[in-house]
Design brief:
Number of helices: 8
Bound molecules: calcium ion
Helix content: 40-55%
Strand content: 15-25%
Distance between the termini: 27 Å
Structural class: alpha/beta
Number of strands: 12
Largest sheet: 5 strands, parallel
Radius of gyration: 18 Å
Strand order of the largest sheet: 2-1-3-4-5
Shape: globular
Length: 232
Amino acid sequence: MNNKMQILVVEDDAPVRSLITTTLKAHDYSYLTAPNGNQAILEASSHNPDVMLLDLGLPDMDGVEVIRKIRTWSNLPIIVISARSEDTDKIDALDAGADDYITKPFSVEELLARLRVTQRRLAASQNQQNCSSVFENGNLKIDYAAGCAYLSDEELHLTPIEYKLLCLLSRNVGKVLTHTFITQKIWGSSWDNDVASLRVFMASLRKKLESSPDSPQFIQTHIGVGYRMLRV
Ligand code: CA
């Protein structure tokens, strides 16, 4: 019972909130709820939940503001719930430190799948703390200390930028990284040109990494948002 994940559900819309909590209950998660941003911050600080599901459109403050406040003291995984019309908010939320997003209307299966991704990421990051110099994901292995990457024990011949990209994605495995975040980390800037270059480097990295670049196994594209490395 102690292994139960506790989810903080932040949503002002009562029917949506009850759909989420009913789902969580049926799948053996425990949960807390908050109908607004201030309550969310209070619950997060006093109960230290495992994951926060956060609606972006809240009555008292912007969901992005909630993320910024929480990120000053906590790495709590945050999955943002946004409406289709709030695409730019979604990107702002990821840049402010959200881990993932789900778009309304979403299915129960989708919600559960996102929670499982987050759970795996948490487990993986705990493992990584134990042996942080080597990363393994399926047949991909990165030896950070040696600066080499291997696919099925064969060394990958990557350019410095491709290698940097691969490391950045692997260090954040399971998390959606925005174009802005990636280009800032790789080039220290995020002009339109950098985003265009990123696409080119990503395509060449995938050619070396993925057995079929058209249906990638490791790196997922989030159109208009960014990329995520999946745990395979
Ligand atoms: Ca709302």
